[in-house]
């Protein structure tokens, strides 16, 4: 009977040990489970982090779309401006071309007449022929720009000539020039009393440009060696001659080569006539047409230089 409590105690102790072991195992298992699975707070943090990342990416995508749209809109507006400018420029060119054509047509009907005498081109070298073709182009270009263009004639201009071929080769649209080209001589086209042949060898200085006259320029270039060719040509027909008033308004300018020449290209003479017609001022006209390399300067400018030099002394 006395051993019963001992057995009960032993049983109790054994059960207690078993319970302790079970609890320890359970705690160990629970401990492992806690480390393997995130807590609620950890899941919320992870979820929040993913949401922030997703929102940031969405915002970046929207921002990139906006940037791309702004860039495309900017390019579109720029393209529209360019197209508008091109259209306006083309319209302006068409309008100006029409106005120029109208002026030239009016000049051919009732403008002041100027003729380039091409009867002497057989005496020119091939190089001089090419230069003459370039001068004809520049002469026509100046006439196109003028508010009061001349009626231009090219006389004794043969289609089988080297000059004709050079004009077509060197000058774009030459065959559409609004000028009169003919194989006839100016002597047969105009009354002799209406003609004034411009030559640097004439004794008479041109005082003004008369609207009812026909001004003849010899189709020569300034490298031409033969002297007084245009003078001889006009004298043969007994035609009135005149020279530009260079001696009346200009003086020789000192230069190292001591070079002075009154022989001008036909486009330079024409520029002087155009300017004088517009300004009625020979000083402005001569400065506009005579290059500094010809060795001349206005007499008024030379006087001013002398006065300034004296004042400095």
Chart the SSEs and their pairings.
Elements: H1 3-36, H2 40-110, E1 113-117, H3 126-145, E2 151-155, H4 162-170, E3 180-181, H5 186-189, E4 195-198, E5 214-218, H6 229-237, E6 240-242, H7 246-249, E7 250-252, H8 266-279, H9 282-289, E8 296-298, H10 299-312
Helix pairs in contact: 3-4, 3-8, 8-9
Give a structural overview:
The protein is an alpha/beta fold and 313 residues long. The protein is 60% helix and 10% strand. The strands form two sheets. Strands 3-2-1-5-4-6 form a six-stranded parallel β-sheet. Strand 2, helix 4 and strand 3 (180-181) form a beta-alpha-beta unit.
The value of Rg in angstroms is 49 Å
Number of helices: 10
The total count of strands amounts to 8
Query: What is the percentage of strand-forming residues?
Result: 5-15%
**Would you tell me the structural class of the helices and strands?**
alpha/beta
The biggest sheet amounts to: 6 strands, parallel
- List the uncertain runs: 1-12, 29-38
Distance between the termini: 158 Å
Order of the strands making up the biggest sheet: 3-2-1-5-4-6
SSE succession: HHEHEHEHEEHEHEHHEH
Q: Assign an overall shape.
A: elongated
- The helicity comes to 55-70%
Mean pLDDT: 82
């Amino acid at each position: 009977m006395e051993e019963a409590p001992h057995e009960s105690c032993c049983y109790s102790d054994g059960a207690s040990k078993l319970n302790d072991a079970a609890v320890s195992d359970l705690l160990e298992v629970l401990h492992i489970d806690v480390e393997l699975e995130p807590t609620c707070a950890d899941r919320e943090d992870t979820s929040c982090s993913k949401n922030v990342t997703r929102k940031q990416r969405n915002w970046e995508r929207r921002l990139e779309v906006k940037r791309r749209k702004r860039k495309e809109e900017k390019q579109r507006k720029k393209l529209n401006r360019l197209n508008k400018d091109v259209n306006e420029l083309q319209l302006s060119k068409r309008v100006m071309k029409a106005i120029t054509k109208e002026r030239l047509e009016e000049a051919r009907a009732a403008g002041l007449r100027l003729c380039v005498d091409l009867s002497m081109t057989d005496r020119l070298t091939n190089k001089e022929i090419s230069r003459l073709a370039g001068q004809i182009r520049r002469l026509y270009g100046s006439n196109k720009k003028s508010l009061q263009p001349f009626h231009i004639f090219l006389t004794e201009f043969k289609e089988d000539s080297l000059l004709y071929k050079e004009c077509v080769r060197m000058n774009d649209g030459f065959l559409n020039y609004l000028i009169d080209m003919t194989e006839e001589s100016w002597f047969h086209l105009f009354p002799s009393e209406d003609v004034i042949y411009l030559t640097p060898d004439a004794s008479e200085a041109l005082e003004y440009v008369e609207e009812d006259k026909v001004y003849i320029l010899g189709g020569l270039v300034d490298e031409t060696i033969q002297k007084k060719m245009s003078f001889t040509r006009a004298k043969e027909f007994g035609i009135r001659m005149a020279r530009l008033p260079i001696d009346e308004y200009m003086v020789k300018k000192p230069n190292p080569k001591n070079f002075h020449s009154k022989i001008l290209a036909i486009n330079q003479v024409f520029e002087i006539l155009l300017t004088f017609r517009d300004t009625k001022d020979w000083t402005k006209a001569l400065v506009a047409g005579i290059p500094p390399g010809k060795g001349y300067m206005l007499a008024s400018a030379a006087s001013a230089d002398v006065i300034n030099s004296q004042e400095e002394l």
